[in-house]
Design brief:
Chain lengths: 317, 264
Amino acid sequence: MSTHPLLEEEGAGTPAAGSEPTRSAEANLSPPTKLSGPIPWVIAILIALVVIAAAGGLSLRNLAENARADLADAVTVQIIEADPNERDIQAEAASSALSAHPLVTSVRQVPQDELEELLKPWLGEGAASDNVPIPALIDVELSRRASAEELAALQSVLDGALEPLGGGARVDAQSQWLRPVYDALSALQYLALALIILVSMATAAAVWLASRSAFANHRETVEIIHLLGGTDAQVTRVFERPVIREAAFGAFIGLVIGLAAVWLLGRQFASLDSGMVGGGGLDLSDWLIIAAIPVAGVLLAVITGRITIGHALKSML
Amino acid sequence: MGFPRLLTADKSPVMDARPAEIVKFDNVGLRYGTDPEVLSDVSFTLFPGSFYFLTGASGAGKTSLLKLLYLAQRPSRGSIRMFGKDVITSPRSSLPDFRRRLGVVFQNFRLVQHLSAFDNVALPLRLAGTDETKVQRSVTDMMEWVGLSHRMQALPQTMSGGEQQRVAIARAVIARPQVLIADEPTGNVDPEMALKLLRLFEALNNRVGTTVIVATHDVHLLKKVPESLIMRLNKGRLSDPTGALRYPPAPKPKPKTQKAGASK
Ligand SMILES: Nc1ncnc2c1ncn2[C@@H]1O[C@H](COP(=O)(O)OP(=O)(O)O)[C@@H](O)[C@H]1O
Ligand SMILES: [Mg+2]
């Protein structure tokens, strides 16, 4: 009579202590992944929100940084004088007076045609004619950001140079009139940061709940596998699988939705093509941060799953 | 109908190096939470290769005692030794090895709902890392013997109570356990099937040397296994009507002849 295969080896009936099945054998034991349930989609929506908030926040940060750099060290000097000749003489005098100032690194008188080009949208073709007097503009770059007193000092240097000529000039510090914009940008940045933190917390909570509910659904199975001699590591691996799959599915969909939204918004802003909005683009490190969001979500799911299963197992003998 | 090939082989050499006792309970008590004890002063010894019935009215504590035995529950007091080791003081990480030497038929089967009948039966083998071709052969063989060849891919919820019970029993015996623990294993099957399953336990006991303990409130069942020893639980206390526990029987009683000696 043939013997049963399990009896061909000595001690075959008592499985070797600590032997572990192959991963594929364990995969056979895993509960099916329910991608149709609400959980992966909740995770997807939250991950999408985090991605959008992060992209917005990073973009605002870049924008604010660029703006600050632009504003930090430049002023514009305006010379309003109807007579073009007078205007040129005054601009010359202003330029040389400013160049002598220690804070000034460069002075550039904006050429007339460039000015006309700039004003055309507002004044029409008439800007080119002499009927409408155009002030002379001098771009002045400073070695650092000027304080209010230093701006006042520059103004008096100008006054000293132009009063003998019977003219006058005004120092326009862009930082002064752009300050509210800059402050608004900072506020928006903090808002984005707060939003990211809140949505991240909600996502963490959702992942946590998902992992716990997945486990609660399978608690009976966990107990059975435990009682049939499954080690803690085996049980954990078996139940990690569906949690990882659900979280990964949700995170991937969330990333796709989030990126699509970011791309659409980016296109809208790009088509504005204004100096104000420019410089808000994302660079490689920003994209890496965004790509890390779904990965962090999945990691969180794994950690939560392990903690939950670990607790439950420890409560079993 | 013959027994599955699993049971037609000689006892494995492992069983010859048997310890003097396979399970020893000493003054074990169990309470759930702050309830009064459901088991009190339970002391007994199970010897390798013996066949035990655990009887008692519903609520007497049979399931509770078996839970201690299959390591689902820690006793509130007393000591439990299995396979020559103190279970209570053994590190948690060593318990899976104890459990893999046990086969359990749970009171309500406890089949894994998302696994087919085949995969449920294969579970102990796969957890133990058995080679997959062996798993396929053993499980197919066992399913055939319990009459479920045509239901191998069925999910538990699509099976009748009797079918589920046979799956549960096949799962309990598939890895040739040293101790088979069965909680009311014949509760959901007709008398004919009950007898057949009992014969399977007997064969496992006789031919492989598995120690068998079957909890049942059905006194008719006791007579069906003449060489069995009987433990009776009454309100959480153990009595010993056959004297088998006080006077340990020979390691492997042969039917009839040794029963008289055992129940002296
Ligand atoms: N998990 C539990 N929690 C609290 N009490 C329990 C629990 N399990 C069983 N009991 C109680 O323990 C006693 C014995 O139950 P049990 O061991 O199931 O007896 P039997 O299997 O002989 O019917 C009963 O009074 C039951 O209510
Ligand atoms: Mg019971």
